[in-house]
User: What shape does this take?
Amino acid sequence: MMDEVKGFGVTLKRLVAPKVVTEYPEEKRPMEPRFRGLPSLRADPDTGEALCVACGLCARICPTTCLEMHVVPSEEGDRELGEFILKAGRCMFCGLCSQVCPVDAITMSQEYELSVLEREGLVYTKTELAAIGAQSPIWWESGVGPDNQQTNAPTRYDRFREVAGEADYGD
Assistant: This one.
């Protein structure tokens, strides 16, 4: 009998408590620093050229094969990124593509509003992904830290590495 009374007490207390509501379209919740949104391409802010060296590691490591790269030869004999296509409907936002990139050309953005009426709207090209990547801060000037969305930002496991580094093993 007392359990039911306690339960009703909790219900009545919640009923009169002030409500905390976020008016979503006008006011957005702040995202966590390591939130993995839509993958985006970074470009050099001085030249505007994409940082991608067309190695293809991101497309190869993707478990859902949502990335397509078309590489074209350049005038110098190198490779150049011709076309880069992301099928966001297939992407599971795991972040493997950004972790494997040797030049940090692809990153996980803070973009999360991806709802569309047709599936074709979830296919992003190189220019659309570069426009999303241009909205993020210049990563080499902002430094490394938990507020950045870099792949080498500190994680919750770094404290174990620091403790292990300070341990005295009696050598």
